[in-house]
Structure formats: structure tokens, C-alpha cells
Amino acid sequence: MGDDSPRSNSTARASSRDGFRHLSGSPAGDERGTRDGTPERVNTEKAIKRKAHRKSRFGCRNCKTRRIKCDEGKPQCTSCKKRRLQCDYVGVFEQYHGIASGDKRASGDDLNISDIELTYHWMTSTCQSLSVWKSGATFWETDMTQLGLVHHYILHLIFAFTAFHLAYSRPERREEYVALADRHYDVALSSVTSELANITLENCHAVCMSVQLICCICWARGPQKGEYLAFGESGRSEWLIMFRGIRTTRMIMNTEYLRVKVPERSLPEYKDAPEFEKTIADLRDWIGHVSSSDAIRISNLQAVDLLVECFRGRYGGIDTELLLVFAFLYKSSEDFLTRLQQYDPIPLIVYAYFTIMLADMERLWYIKGWTAHVMSGIYEKLPIEYRVMIRWPMAKIGWIPPIEEKSSFLRILTHP
């Protein structure tokens, strides 16, 4: 019988299958036939096909963040390659095949394009967006970048903030940039948390600046449901805890608060300065009469006085940087902030006045949308009978209550 006989072909197939079993680790056994007497090749092919489409808990971090299926392609999955993201598998593939670090930079295809893009955008655009004056970008462009080269978690936070800026500037690629921002933020946060537990004179400055960047990143994400900066849906505000961490760091190290370097020229005077003086003075008189105890009255009035100080600094042409309006939340007493997070009406009313300064900051891209969001949270938590007390700040920021609330609010306005 010739070599191309059915028997020879069957023998060859059996030998080939035994070889496959050897490579895959499957035990070699006697070939079983089917009902028509042919070898059981179809079942083997089906098993191989099912194995190729098995469910997997693996996948790169970018695909997991976006909650899409990862094809686990090597050295880079299809999704990351399409979106020009740095895939987890690149490093693993190179390590497995023994690619030297010097060889990695030899090919243009191995460049981390996403980090290069973030670096370029940070140096040419994002660093300038952190300050209201162009000269104020000098600190962020030089000092912060140099600090990031020493403390890499600063660099990751810079990249995260820059990625959110790109997401804001290029909405058609927002999903891609948000995933990139989350990746750098997660890497940085673990390091910052470790540094906060071991603050020294050497890392104090870097820790303080990292907390500032984290606060800016929280703003850059945009308004989040249940998060109103000074309080949250469950009372506690994660942003406020991080923001007050700057104050805690200063107290621990007994050093001067590290503020952003800003240009010398002051902001222009606010034309309605006399208006806020009179309105807040009326608010102060009212609070002095309705506070339930002497201790609470003192705490409330101290908050109002601090609010006046911030208004004068911002709108009287004294302060040199818009971000300094957050001195109100930085300097407020723990008692006042605790009652604010417990939805005490008077702290909520005082906080509503703060939104006027917050609205002025919306010229910065990463603050946009927060003023109306914060006011909506205040309005929701404030009892109906107290809402008349926030008419002025609502009018100043141009916020209108939800349509289902208008009728009840109008009744309050006409019968205060």
C-alpha cells in the first residue's frame, strides 16, 4: 500500500496528535473512534476552540478600568494599542524575552508615547492653567517638575492632572485620558499614603504639594454625586479630609504653610464690595440671635468673620491668587466643619455664601461645574424654612432651584 493510503494518513494523524498532546501536557492514550469509525479529531478540535475562548480573570489594568474585554495580546493588547496606552503586557513580554533596557530605547515603537504626550502637555499648557496669572505658572513648570524628579509620586500626580486636562480639552478621547489619569493616580496614591505615615523634614514639602495636587485632581474629575467639598451625602467629605491634611502636616512639622508661589500684582477690586459687607453684616446679626448656645454662637460668628476676611482679601484687591479663597475651609474650626457635615442649618447657610467665591474660580477649567453642584447640595440639605437665608448667594451665582422645588421656594420668597 502506498504512502498516501487512508491507513497511512490515519497513522500520521495519530502521530501528530500524540505530538500535540506531548507539547500541551495532555496524556497520550489510545485513539478512540466515533460511530462512523473515524478518529475522534472533531472533539479534539472543539476542545481546542473552547480553550481559545475561555473566560479569563486576567487582562491588563487599562481594560479592567474601562470594564471591557481584554484580548490579552502580546506584547500589547489590541485595546491599548488602538488607544495608544502603555499596556501591562509590554514590560512582561520584554522581561520574558530578555530585552535589555538599552535595546528598549533603540526602537521608536518602544517609546512610552503616552508619558511623552503628558510631559509635553504639562510643560506647554497644563502648568499654566493652575494659576490665574501666566507668571504664576513658573512655580508649577519648574519647581514642581524638579520636585517630581526626586519624588516620583509627584510626577505621577502631575501626569494624572494633565491627563484630566486633556480629557477636558479633547472630549472625543475623554474615556482614554480618564483611564490614563486613573492609572497614574492609583500609583501615586499608594506612595503618598505611605509618606503621610512617615513625614520628615526631607519629605514634608513634597507631601504638602502632593496633597494640593490630589485636591486639584478631585476637582478636575468634575462634580461627583454626593460630594460637595465641605460635606458629603453621608456627612463625611473625602475631599475635605485630604484638604485638611495639609493643615495637619503643617502642625506636625511645625513649619510654615507651603503655599503656591504667585505673582506680586493683586487681583482687581470687586465693584460690589460694599454690597457683601452689608449683606454679611446682616447675616452676622441674625446668627447672633438664633444660635442655640454661647459656644455654638461663638463658633458660628468666628466662621462668619473668617468669611468676611476671605471676601475682603479676594474682592478688596488684597489677595494675589484665586486659590486663596479656600483659606475659609483651611482655617475653619473643627467644630464648625463637624456641624456642617451634620447638616446644621447655620453652617450650611454660611457655606452657601462661600460659593460666591467658588463661582469666581470657575475661570479655571478644573473648577467648572462645582459651584452649582455645591449649591444644589446645600439647598437639598437645608430645611425649607431656612432657604430664604440663601437668596443672596443663589442670585449672585445665578443658580435656580430644581423645577419641583420652585413653588415652595417662591412661597418662602414672598412670605419671608
UniProtKB/TrEMBL annotation:
Domain of life: Eukaryota
Signal peptide: none
PROSITE patterns according to UniProt: ZN2_CY6_FUNGAL_1, ZN2_CY6_FUNGAL_2
UniProt key word Nucleus: yes
Biased composition (Basic and acidic residues): 29-47
Residues covered by the Zn(2)-C6 fungal-type domain: 59-89
Chain positions covered by the region annotation Disordered: 1-50
GO molecular function: DNA-binding transcription factor activity, RNA polymerase II-specific; zinc ion binding
PANTHER family, sorted: STEROL REGULATORY ELEMENT-BINDING PROTEIN ECM22, ZN(2)-C6 FUNGAL-TYPE DOMAIN-CONTAINING PROTEIN-RELATED
Official protein name in the record: Zn(2)-C6 fungal-type domain-containing protein
Taxonomic source organism: Melanomma pulvis-pyrius CBS 109.77
Source species taxonomy: Eukaryota, Fungi, Dikarya, Ascomycota, Pezizomycotina
